[in-house]
Amino acid sequence: MDKITAIIPTGNEEQNIEEVLESVSFADEIMVVDSFSKDKTVELAKKYTDRILQHEYINSAAQKNWAIPQAKHEWILLVDADERVPEKLKQEIFQILQEGTEKVGFWVYRDNYYMGRHLKHGGWNRDKVIRLFRKSKCRYEEKNVHAEIVAEGDVGRLRNHLIHNTYKGFDKFVEKVNRYAWWQAKDYDSKVKKITLYHLFIKPGYRFFSHYIIRGGFRDGIPGLTVAFLASYALFTRYIKLWILRNKKINH
């Protein structure tokens, strides 16, 4: 049976760290990659593993790419601190490791929860990420935000889902949107020639309409309305911050 390393990237995750580490306790190695947390994250993690590495955080992709080669085993299960691996997913992973596979990685769908509600509409039901993969065949693309695995080979799909307790509250959600907008502005600087009303009004407006109406986000109540609005706000903010970024370059 192939062995597996679980990698957990952390940064001030004392409210999440114990539950996520419990959920990956089946792994042959558990490696916490911490970005110098100022809370009790590291202290709590020591109850579950002695492999705690600390590295300065630049962005998610860079942090994960730094960590992956340091795993002891070929197979990697990468789980964010706000995610959980339920029992059925564990058993499916066990079966793959036991039987062997030609795949170099696997897409995993996520069940997203916000404001205590499982988001089943608005596009959230199609949210998937590559989280089980071979370290010799997979790396994250070099992007500041929403980077995905680039795989050298065939990627399969798991039947069972990760649990994702996304955004602990409205303020945290807005804070994350604003933080990501700066990173996305840097990614889009080379892609967008001129910022127009299309970027500032039409794209954000359609984003809200798509999430809330076309994809049925209204069926998820207030949480569905909130995430649709903030998806639109995130798009608007990205281009405002891109304008600010370019304006600073001109004036300095």
What's this, in brief?
This protein has 252 residues and is α/β, with parallel strands linked by helices. The protein has 7 helices and 12 strands.
Number of strands: 12
Distance between the termini: 58 Å
Low-confidence stretches: none
Kindly provide the radius of gyration, computed on alpha-carbon positions and rounded to a whole number of angstroms.
Answer: 19 Å
Could you characterize what this model shows?
It is a single chain. With 252 residues, the protein is α/β, with parallel strands linked by helices. The protein folds into two domains: 4-165, Spore Coat Polysaccharide Biosynthesis Protein SpsA, Chain A (Alpha-Beta Complex), CATH 3.90.550.10; 170-251, no CATH class. It is 40% helix and 22% strand. It contains seven helices and twelve strands. Strands 1, 2, 3, 4, 5, 6, 7, 8, 11 and 12 form a ten-stranded mixed beta sheet that branches. Strands 9-10 form a two-stranded antiparallel sheet. The N and C termini lie far apart (58 Å).
Describe this protein with a few key phrases:
alpha/beta, Spore Coat Polysaccharide Biosynthesis Protein SpsA, Chain A, ten-stranded mixed beta sheet, two-stranded antiparallel sheet, 7 helices, 40% helix
